[in-house]
């Protein structure tokens, strides 16, 4: 993060070696609450470099710095909440899903570009939640 890069999940190559992909952050890269906390600690320690600050400023300017805030806080958008409330079994299951599953589905809804895609995703979530199945493809 100091240099505006992001790492992938660590994977095993063999019994002795691991792989970690490091790439430059894209302008539309999301910033989780944990990453923003890390950035704050790095800034306080004076470790953020010019390239890292540029990535942060780009994300703040284009809205991608805060795009996950509602998702991280498990805030249900009004249209999803209304759809879940309209189907009691879906609401009951949704409320019992672990936070990680709800975050994934909330991001799936939030990341829809078109209104009809968002509506279709909400319908899928409610339909699957009704039977206790988690959705988000």
Structure description:
The protein is mainly alpha-helical and 137 residues long. The chain folds into 2 domains: 5-67, no CATH class; 70-130, no CATH class. The chain is built from 7 helices and 4 strands. It has helices at 33-44, 50-62, 69-72, 78-85, 88-96, 99-110, 115-130; strands at 5-7, 11-12, 18-19, 22-24. It has a two-stranded antiparallel ribbon with strand order 1-4. Strands 2-3 form a two-stranded antiparallel sheet. α4 (78-85) runs parallel beside α7, α5 packs across α7 and α6 packs antiparallel against α7 (115-130). The two termini are 28 Å apart.
Key features of this structure:
two-stranded antiparallel ribbon; mainly alpha; 54% helix
Q: How many helical stretches? A: 7
Distance between the termini: 28 Å
How many strands appear in the DSSP assignment?
A: 4
- Overall pLDDT metric: 94
List the helices and strands and how they pair.
Blueprint: E1 5-7, E2 11-12, E3 18-19, E4 22-24, H1 33-44, H2 50-62, H3 69-72, H4 78-85, H5 88-96, H6 99-110, H7 115-130
Antiparallel strand pairs: 1-4, 2-3
Helix pairs in contact: 4-7, 5-7, 6-7
């Amino acid at each position: 993060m100091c240099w505006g890069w992001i790492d992938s999940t660590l994977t095993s190559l063999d019994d002795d070696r691991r792989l970690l992909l490091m790439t430059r952050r894209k302008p539309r890269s999301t910033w989780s609450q944990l990453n923003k906390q890390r950035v704050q600690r790095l800034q306080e320690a004076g470790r953020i470099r010019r390239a890292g600050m540029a990535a942060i400023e780009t994300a703040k300017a284009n809205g991608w710095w805060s795009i996950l805030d509602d998702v991280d806080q498990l805030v249900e958008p009004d249209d999803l909440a209304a759809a879940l409330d309209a189907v009691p079994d879906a609401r009951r299951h949704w409320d019992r899903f672990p936070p990680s599953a709800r975050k994934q589905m909330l991001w799936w809804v939030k990341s829809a570009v078109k209104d009809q895609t968002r509506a279709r995703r909400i319908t899928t979530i409610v339909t699957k939640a009704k039977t206790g199945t988690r959705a988000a493809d």
